[in-house]
């Protein structure tokens, strides 16, 4: 924007200067021309009294003196054909002036001023003054240079003023952009200054109001999550007591472990909600091989119970991704949970993990019916969208995890005709 304003002002100033300086340059040329011609005419007219009153010898001396002292060469054409002073031809213009008509004509070397005057013998003589091109342009080039210099100075000043003005407009805009990015990164204390121009001040005020409203909404969300945790605590405690009361010791320990896992997940969700109000920090990352191996081992028990063939191909680790271990674990659970939820018992699936073009790629594909026509529009990745009666949140969790790491998610059809989800996770910097 700053550069565009400077270019616009420079173009406008250039047009104004051209419209002003070109006529002024022409005027300077005209004034110099008229000045030289008038001076030559004055010098020629100074001899008119001499030509009409003195004899020829005196006239010749007077013409020589005038040529020695004047700027322009003078020639006197007498009626009898005698030519005194500077050499010059008796041109048709001279013959016309000999009939009693004074005039100014253009020549190859400049301008000739012809003055008709009566001589001492009663005839008609012509006084000719020659003005060269150099005399006609005396001082013109210098004036043109001064005008050009003035134009350059004015253009530079206009661009400088425009740049200062543009800076005063661009600076508040950049500050607003910086504040908006800080808010997007979770710095809810960021506020825009309101000491800018009126229009920018209105935008800054609206942005500050929006930041305050976001802060209020997040505070309300954290309170709601805290309330939810208290509401869940009593049922979880009841489940734990019921599990501990079971007579089968192994069954009691198994159910108790599941209740503890559920309690930890609820606690982690509460902590994550509480961190949303603070600035985001770059995740430390985790070893994807270790996390995926642990979750595959967990789901292998259920796969065995449902007679599913689990084909696992994990690259040798470590393969670090820019994602916390808990978030990657949720992502893997969402993918494998969809396989168990949306395919019949006995349907096998593949889990592959490997490095691919600067990313860590996780591929989960099954031998079921696939996504169908919805995969073309990407509908399964939309939050709450599901064509199989589910909540539609599972794949959205996967998408958000991939986006947070700087990767992406692709849906497709597997080699055996079932659904295939390809997730590319970004790797930590450095």
How are the SSEs ordered, and which strands pair?
Blueprint: H1 2-45, H2 48-51, H3 56-69, E1 74-77, E2 83-85, H4 92-97, E3 103-106, E4 110-118, E5 124-132, H5 133-136, H6 140-184, H7 198-244, H8 249-275, E6 286-287, H9 288-305, E7 310-314, E8 320-321, H10 325-342, E9 349-356, E10 359-366, H11 374-377, H12 394-405, E11 408-413, E12 419-425
Parallel strand pairs: 7-9
Antiparallel strand pairs: 1-2, 1-5, 3-4, 4-5, 6-8, 9-10, 10-12, 11-12
Helix pairs in contact: 1-6, 6-7, 7-8, 9-10, 10-12
Give a description of the structure.
The chain is of the alpha+beta class. It has three domains: 2-140, PAS domain (Beta-Lactamase, 2-Layer Sandwich), CATH 3.30.450; 198-275; 286-425, Histidine kinase-like ATPase, C-terminal domain (Heat Shock Protein 90, 2-Layer Sandwich), CATH 3.30.565.10. Helices cover 57% and strands 16% of the residues. The protein is built from twelve helices and twelve strands. The strands form three sheets. The protein has a five-stranded antiparallel β-sheet with strand order 2-1-5-4-3. A five-stranded mixed β-sheet has the order 7-9-10-12-11. β9 and β10 form a beta hairpin. The longest helix has 47 residues, at 198-244. It is rod-shaped, with a radius of gyration of 49 Å. The mean pLDDT is 84.
Brief overview:
It is found in: Cell membrane. The protein has 430 residues and is an alpha+beta fold.
């Amino acid at each position: 924007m700053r550069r565009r304003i400077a270019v616009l002002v420079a173009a406008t100033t250039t047009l104004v200067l051209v419209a002003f300086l070109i006529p002024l340059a022409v005027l300077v040329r005209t004034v110099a021309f008229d000045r030289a011609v008038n001076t030559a005419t004055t010098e020629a007219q100074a001899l008119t009294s001499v030509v009409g009153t003195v004899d020829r010898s005196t006239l010749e001396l007077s013409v020589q003196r005038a040529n020695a002292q004047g700027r322009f060469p003078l020639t006197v054409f007498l009626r009898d054909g005698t030519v005194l002073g500077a050499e010059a031809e008796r041109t048709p213009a001279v013959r016309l002036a000999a009939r009693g008509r004074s005039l100014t004509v253009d020549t190859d070397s400049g301008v000739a001023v012809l003055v008709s005057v009566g001589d001492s013998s009663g005839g008609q003589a012509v006084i000719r003054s020659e003005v060269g091109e150099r005399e006609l342009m005396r001082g013109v080039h210098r004036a043109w240079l001064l005008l050009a210099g003035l134009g350059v100075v004015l253009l530079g000043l206009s661009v400088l003023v425009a740049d200062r003005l543009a800076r005063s407009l661009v600076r508040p805009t950049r500050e607003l952009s910086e504040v908006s990015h800080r808010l997007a990164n979770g710095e809810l204390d960021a506020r825009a200054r309101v000491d800018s121009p009126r229009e920018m001040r209105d935008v800054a005020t609206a942005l500050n109001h929006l930041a305050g409203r976001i802060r209020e909404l997040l505070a309300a969300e954290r309170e709601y999550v805290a309330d939810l945790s208290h509401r869940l605590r009593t049922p979880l405690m009841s489940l734990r007591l019921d599990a501990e009361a079971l007579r089968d010791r192994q069954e009691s320990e198994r159910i108790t472990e599941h209740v503890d896992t559920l309690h930890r997940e609820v606690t982690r969700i509460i902590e994550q909600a509480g961190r949303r109000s603070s600035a985001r920090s770059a995740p430390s990352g985790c070893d994807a091989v270790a996390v995926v191996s642990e979750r595959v081992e967990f789901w292998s028990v259920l796969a065995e119970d449902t007679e599913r063939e689990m084909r696992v191909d994990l690259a040798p680790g470590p393969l670090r991704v820019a994602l916390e271990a808990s978030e990657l674990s949720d992502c893997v659970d969402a993918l494998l949970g969809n396989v168990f939820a949306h395919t019949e018992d006995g349907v096998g699936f593949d889990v592959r993990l490997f490095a691919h073009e600067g990313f860590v790629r996780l591929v989960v594909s099954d031998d079921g019916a696939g996504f169908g026509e919805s995969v073309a529009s990407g509908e399964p990745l939309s939050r709450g969208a599901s064509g199989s009666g589910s909540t539609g949140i599972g794949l959205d969790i996967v998408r958000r995890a991939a986006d947070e790491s700087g990767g992406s998610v692709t849906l497709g059809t597997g080699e055996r005709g079932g659904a295939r989800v390809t997730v590319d996770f970004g790797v930590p910097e450095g």
